[in-house]
Description:
It is a multi-pass membrane protein. The chain is mostly helical. The protein has a domain at about 85-140. It is about 70% helix and about 10% strand. The chain has a two-stranded antiparallel sheet with strand order 1-2. The longest helix is centred in the middle third of the chain and has 52 residues, at about 30-80.
Amino acid sequence: MKSIKTxxxxxxxxxxxxxxxxxxxxxxxxxxxxxxxxxxxxxITIITLLLILLSIGTAFILACRISRPxxxxxxxxxxxxxxxxxxxxxxxxxxxxxxxxxxxxxxxxMQTSFTLxxxxxxxxxxxxxxxxxxxxDNMP
Length: 140
C-alpha cells in the first residue's frame, strides 16, 4: 500500500478491538519496517566474511604446520640418499608424539641401520684385506 499524499510505500496492519465492533489500523513506512533487517543483513554479511577469512587463515597455518616437517623429512631423505649419513634428524621432530614424530623416528632408525651396515661392511673388508695380505706374506 502507498500513502496517497506522499507516495511512500507503507505496510498496513489492523486488528479488531474486542467488544466494541471497531478495528484499529496502523501504518508504517516500508523503510522503517525493514531498517533493522538491512542492518542485520549487513552485520551477518560482515561476520560471515570475517569467519571465512579466519577459516582460511587457520587452514593455511595448519597446512604449513603439516607440510613443513614433511618437506624437511623429504629433504633429509635426499641427503641420506646421496650417501651422507652424518646429518642427524632434528630432535624437535623426534620428540613429537604424532605421525611426524613417527616418521622422524623411522628415518633416524633407518639412518642408524645404514650406518651400522656400512661400518660392518667396512670392518669385514678390512679383515679380508688383512687376511689376504697375511696370505701373501706366507706364500713362497
